[in-house]
């Protein structure tokens, strides 16, 4: 039985600094929240009267929209700040922005920013809760939680399960949150990709590094395929996208060597024909849309736990 009754800090900035018990609490709460989806009216009053501000300094579809959906299902009010039309374009600092928005009555901020540490900086200047929706190359904790939640749904306890994370590890905040969370739950994690896209000393996080993808896939339970982030790369990291797909791309032929119950994941958006073929992306082994749906449940759970919602929220 989980002894933790709530998250121990007012913010969720990453999975590195939260305990295994807190991770399991978030996952268990997400299971309860997912039941709300299938009601005639998919809404509960758990956060009625709470106000949440979405502050995205980078583009987003799934994360931003799923936080909106999560807040609405919990009956919270939402302010979605359009950064391109905000005072940030006039030079206003992040700290000034969030302080002004806090005094307007917001109890939580969901922040995505290109700079690692931006949500941490905001959290130190706010009484309100801050949720990191992705900061630079650092972490994306709710994506990590939803990936782990999806894995647990498919194969139960993850202790001893092997997860292979493939692709652009160097630029991936998703990979880092997955690794921190999975290692704490007792999973075995391997990272695979071109040497130019594997961070130095990543083995210190507790993972195995291999540049030969086929060696790692033979006994894998899950393959988590990462997007090649061309917008974050300098020149010379990849010879060509065609060559990358030939060596590291997940396609039907490569899956023939995997376990029959292999599960394919991708945080999106997908570059079809680069990190994953359309045949696999649309095939029976992938749970990509399950990840998207589970993202709403996980974000409901995080908002509920941080904002002190009523304990019978899903009743």
TrEMBL record:
Carbamoyl phosphate binds at residues 62-63, 112, 140, 143, 268-269. PROSITE patterns: CARBAMOYLTRANSFERASE. Its EC number is 2.1.3.2. Residues 10-153 form the Aspartate/ornithine carbamoyltransferase carbamoyl-P binding domain. Residues 159-305 form the Aspartate/ornithine carbamoyltransferase Asp/Orn-binding domain. Pathway: Pyrimidine metabolism; UMP biosynthesis via de novo pathway; (S)-dihydroorotate from bicarbonate: step 2/3. PANTHER family: ASPARTATE CARBAMOYLTRANSFERASE, ORNITHINE CARBAMOYLTRANSFERASE, MITOCHONDRIAL. Belongs to the aspartate/ornithine carbamoyltransferase superfamily. ATCase family. This is Aspartate carbamoyltransferase. It comes from Candidatus Saganbacteria bacterium. The lineage of its organism: Bacteria, Bacillati, Saganbacteria. The gene is pyrB.
